[in-house]
């Protein structure tokens, strides 16, 4: 099954990464930006990816627009906006979607898929995770800061994936994003969630890169406590990721080392003085814990701290100018 067109919603770091790389192999890529002025600038300048460690520079000139309705029905729609922006793009997704359009989200955390399912037919909704990371250099250029697998699965476990998804996964692999399709995506989502739980809020609060967390015993202790709560909630939900807690902590710390120079997405949000995805990461742990009669006090504390600083500014006192 051939793909005719692909639309990516969200010109953030990950959106620019996927847009630029897919454009190298596929001609009909559209990028949606809610900001008309920025969309115009990106259309003129193009988008670019700089490979880490002084590698090559890839450039692309996709069609960039704020008018989703003008693009018509798409074969694939990728949702790469921040999780808290999902509600804002439902109208755009509806205008881009036909009966066979698949909508693929690689957003952080857990919960955005439930929002998308209000508009997208469940049999067309694909959830996924990617271990690729990107740091924004400017509004049109990102540094490809980390690589890894991309894993996709249907919103409803056990539902047979549509043929178009296999075609899209093959295209991703051709573009440098090795992709696989699994029967049940939720163990994969929870594994990635526990990594984010243990990295994102600590980097945002401390201002450190991923690898630097491991250099500070107090941060390591908070990391372990937050991940333990998430692990216990996951076990109560009956989700099996094939790891015990020590295995999960080994994974979290391996990701810290493997992405040592990466600026986490939540720290990038802090640097922009913007909203974070804390409610879809540590906040998801807190919500599921409450439903299961558990407490997730460390994750709740991290949520409260991030919420406070997001609302009141990231200075830590009158002396911090």
Structural write-up:
The chain contains 11 helices and 12 strands. It is an alpha/beta fold. Helix 5 (163-174) links the parallel strand 11 and strand 12. It starts with 5 loop residues before the first strand and ends in a 9-residue tail after the last helix.
- Give the class from helix and strand content and strand pairing: alpha/beta
Unreliable segments of 5+ consecutive residues: none
Described by strand count, sense and barrel closure, the largest sheet is: 8 strands, mixed
- The strands making up the biggest β-sheet line up spatially as 5-2-1-6-7-8-11-12
CATH class of the largest domain: Alpha Beta
CATH H-level name of the largest domain... which superfamily?
NAD(P)-binding Rossmann-like Domain
Average residue-wise pLDDT? 94
CATH topology of the largest domain: Rossmann fold
> For the terminal residues, how far apart are their CA atoms?
57 Å
Topology diagram in text:
Elements: E1 6-9, H1 13-23, E2 29-32, H2 36-45, E3 47-51, E4 57-60, E5 63-65, E6 76-79, H3 90-96, E7 102-105, H4 112-116, E8 125-130, E9 133-138, E10 141-146, E11 150-154, H5 163-174, E12 179-181, H6 186-206, H7 217-236, H8 245-258, H9 265-271, H10 282-291, H11 297-312
Parallel strand pairs: 1-2, 1-6, 2-5, 3-10, 6-7, 7-8, 11-12
Antiparallel strand pairs: 3-4, 8-11, 9-10
Helix pairs in contact: 6-7, 6-8, 6-9, 6-11, 7-10, 10-11
